[in-house]
Amino acid sequence: xxxxxxxxxxxxxxxxxxxxxxxxxxxxxxxxxxxxxxxxxxxxxxxxxxxxxxxxxxxxxxxxxxxxxxxxxxxxxxxxxxxxxxxxxxxxxxxxxxxxxxxxxxxxxxxxxxxxxxxxxxxxxxxxxxxxxxxxxxxxxxxxxxxxxxxxxxxxxxxxxxxxxxxxxxxxxxxxxxx
Amino acid sequence: xxxxxxxxxxxxxxxxxxxxxxxxxxxxxxxxxxxxxxxxxxxxxxxxxxxxxxxxxxxxxxxxxxxxxxxxxxxxxxxxxxxxxxxxxxxxxxxxxxxxxxxxxxxxxxxxxxxxxxxxxxxxxxxxxxxxxxxxxxxxxxxxxxxxxxxxxxxxxxxxxxxxxxxxxxxxxxxxxxx
DNA sequence: GCATATTCTTAATCTATGTTAAGAAATTTT
DNA sequence: AAAATTTCTTAACATAGATTAAGAATATGC
Lengths: 179, 179
Description:
The structure is a homodimer. By secondary structure, chain A is an alpha+beta fold. Chain A has a domain at 6-107: Jelly Rolls (Sandwich), CATH 2.60.120.10. Chain A is built from 7 helices and 6 strands; from the N terminus they run αβββββαβααααα. In chain A, strands 1, 2, 3, 4, 5 and 6 form a 6-stranded antiparallel beta sheet that branches. In chain A, a hairpin with a 5-residue loop joins β3 (36-50) and β4 (56-62). In chain A, α3 packs across α4 and α6 packs across α7. The radius of gyration of chain A is 18 Å and the shape is globular. In chain A, 33% of the residues are buried. The interface between A and B is large, with 37 and 36 residues. Chain A binds a DNA duplex through α7.
């Protein structure tokens, strides 16, 4: 999306840390203040909350080439309610919030890149809210399938159920319905 | 949030159009491609979809000093599903998408301002998604009351019901419960 | 490759929330 | 301020989706 010169690439390479996250290992845990965003090079991460009854609710999947973070904790500097862990063995690039800001100062077009990225994330989040308000569970599942075709066979069904806001049992029933 | 010089103020004043929007009048209608963001100087706007059964679902309230737009339509350049209208007689500032970009080029710190604004909107939207996934209707109503105390007495209850994703009848019942 | 743990399915039962309807209260228009 | 419209409340009944439980299928760790 943003063409970079060799020097700009070097700046970024210096500020970003590569990391392997094996399946089920955390990149971030609830209770801590988030200080990193992650770009998924390979694999898949997810962010989720755990409610008072111990149920997990997935906020975001981040397959390859997606960014993931706890935006709330990052911008408010407050302890976060979110956990971020790997659904598959993954390789990520970590960018700390302070590095991010220093990149913006040194390479302004990256501030534009992240602004646009965030605008797209907001548009997608709004769309998801509208889906909750106006669609049945079945319709949300069908939308999910067309929106994330690659995820359907790589992540457990119960994770999809959690993302669309239903129980795994009910998702199982919905799937049985459509022969 | 962003201190401006006299000249910068003049640039902005030139690119922004002031407009009065009487109660129930539209700033934007579904089907059109959105090309403006609006800053609410006075009054209150809302964005909402109308589903196939004719029910309204409110995505956002914008009381004084908030921005409102159809981010999806704006960034994808696609016809929007959202209507934006005034809940109260309002005065707004309209900023077209093209002016917005030209402001970014002329006053880079405003690109930062809008990046931060969008990050905050995303954090709030994520929070709302988590609320849907993990809270009952009653808890969502209570959260709404603490989050938007000023709205509770200025907008119809049925609008609150629509925003938190329940019917007005059920909200009425919830309110009766807590004596 | 076997044992263990996790995920998925099915079915019976339960419950939070929706629907319908009708009157009361509040607000807006004339 | 009366009439008309919109919003709010209440109550009986309906339903989408949750819960519980148990077995079957898959996946994982050793």
